[in-house]
Amino acid sequence: MTRHVLVTGAARGIGRSIAEAFVANGDTVSTIYRGGDLPEGVNGAIADITDTDAVNAAFDELEAQHGRVRVLVANAGITKDGLLMRMSDEDFANVVDVNLTGTFRCVRRAVNSMMRQKYGRIVLVGSVVGLMGNPGQVNYASSKAALVGMARSITREVGARGITANVIAPGFITTDMTAQLPEDTVKQYEGTIPAKRFGATAEVAAAAVYLGSDAAGYVSGAVLPVDGGLGMGH
């Protein structure tokens, strides 16, 4: 039986690579996304994950087509960087509402399906920044750090039902966003990474496919770094 894998935010960047990797794995892949072109073989429902009713309706639509979700990769996220003393309440709240509460909305709905199947794989896409911190990203780091507590609480609640919940913590990954960084900044960052390079989105996707597999059935509540060694010890 092919599995229904739902990857949020699969139109670009890391989410796109994750969706493509599950398609290549032979899974049926869908996404909840805000717009844009989707990878070949990925079916989508446009919805805002800050809206509970929209999230539930998107799940209903996609499950009607492909069956209950068996693997959820919660990837969708935003940044609104700024130094602490200048960060507005709105910029803090918006990032938390998408990255943390939006993830919660998706996980809550997915677990409803997974409990009935007594099977599920939940993969939350965090960040090395959530473990190490980063200047100008108090909002983003807070939202990503909280995903660790979320995964571990989910594991304790529903682990006996064949459901796992884990976090991937990517480091600096080559995407359209990082491609806009000045060359000097890239070199500075690379100097702090033991691997001395940025990662590829495919390397994050490989971790997601593993954590979403039957082979990872005894891995839960874990944080898997994909960061070239940047976050060691955190």
TrEMBL record:
Positions of the Ketoreductase domain: 3-171
Pfam families, per the entry: adh_short_C2
Keywords: Oxidoreductase
InterPro entries associated with the record: KR_dom, NAD(P)-bd_dom_sf, SDR_fam
Biological process annotations from GO: fatty acid biosynthetic process
DNA repair is among the record's keywords: no
Gene3D superfamilies: NAD(P)-binding Rossmann-like Domain
Family assignment from sequence similarity: Belongs to the short-chain dehydrogenases/reductases (SDR) family.
Name under which the protein is recorded: 3-oxoacyl-[acyl-carrier protein] reductase
